[in-house]
């Protein structure tokens, strides 16, 4: 007797295995899409902050007393906003022969939101010529 095909049981088992594999893949796809979107958002806001801090670093290298809060953040729009920019003195010292303390280290902070999710960045900048 010649066996030319599969039995109905073999076909049903193969379909059941295929269905389990497909159900597992379909269950994972939404979380992969969510992770991809979150990663893209994090990359976008991080690149905007990095670009802003490079502009701040350049401005403060020329003039340490420059106001970094007036520098615009590149890439705003499409759900990205960076409304919070602050500058805080971190370290002061009083030069010899002076009574006025001099700020030599500042922290520039940037607060952004992208699609309702908050992000916070900071950069410490020291005065080059003391």
Describe the model.
With 130 residues, the protein is of the alpha+beta class. 42% of the residues lie in helices and 28% in strands. The protein has a 3-stranded antiparallel β-sheet with strand order 1-2-3, with helices on one face. The mean pLDDT is 90.
Helix proportion of residues, in percent? 40-55%
Shape: rod-shaped
Number of separate helices: 1
Strand order of the largest sheet: 1-2-3
Order of helices and strands: HEEE
Extract low-pLDDT stretches. Answer: none
Secondary structural class = alpha+beta
How much of the sequence lies in strands comes to 25-35%
Mean pLDDT: 90
How many strand segments? Answer: 3
What does the radius of gyration come to? Answer: 29 Å
SSE blueprint and pairings:
Layout: H1 8-62, E1 80-93, E2 102-114, E3 117-126
Antiparallel strand pairs: 1-2, 2-3
Can you describe this structure in just a few lines?
This protein is α+β, with helices and mostly antiparallel strands and 130 residues long. The protein is built from 1 helix and 3 strands; from the N terminus they run αβββ. Helix content is 42%, strand content 28%.
């Amino acid at each position: 007797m010649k066996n030319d095909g599969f039995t109905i049981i073999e076909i049903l088992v193969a379909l059941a295995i295929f269905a389990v594999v497909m159900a597992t893949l379909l269950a994972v796809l939404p979380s992969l899409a969510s992770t991809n979107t979150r990663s893209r958002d994090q990359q976008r806001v991080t690149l905007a902050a990095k670009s802003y801090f490079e502009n701040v670093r350049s401005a403060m290298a020329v003039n340490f007393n420059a106001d970094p809060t007036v520098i615009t953040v590149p890439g705003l729009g499409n759900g990205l906003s960076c409304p919070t920019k602050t500058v805080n003195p971190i370290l002061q010292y009083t030069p010899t022969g002076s009574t006025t303390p001099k700020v030599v280290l500042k922290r520039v902070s940037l607060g952004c939101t992208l699609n309702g999710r908050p992000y916070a960045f900071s950069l410490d900048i020291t005065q080059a010529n003391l």
